[in-house]
Design goal:
mainly alpha; 8 helices; about 0% strand
Length: about 130
Amino acid sequence: MRRRTPQDFASWLHDQLTARSYSLTPRGGGQVRFAEAAGVSKATVSRILRGEGSTDIAVLEKIGQALGIRLGVILVEAGVIDPDELGGSQRPQGHMTADEAADELGIIDPTARQVLRGVIDTLKPPPPGDPTAG
């Protein structure tokens, strides 16, 4: 698998932001709102969305936190590391939340994430001692 480019990351971030209702039109204010949410400058967000150059890992971490996406995923999307380099280090030990599962599956649409949560809740076994446990 090839390492992603700054242009790939720009496209991915654009999709992430628009899926979260950040308007990226010239007068939409989405870049400013996201920059504030992430704790980075609007100029930095604008540069990233133009696909210009690499981005500091500290900035990528802030972007991941603002989006609710683990740093490893952001590093892969930004082309800092290959997915193969990430390997099993991002695999959670024990159980993952429905939102973590949605992130792993690349599900960003809020409605689709809610559907996934419902499916997971339906499939979860009842806790021990629950009268519905068979």
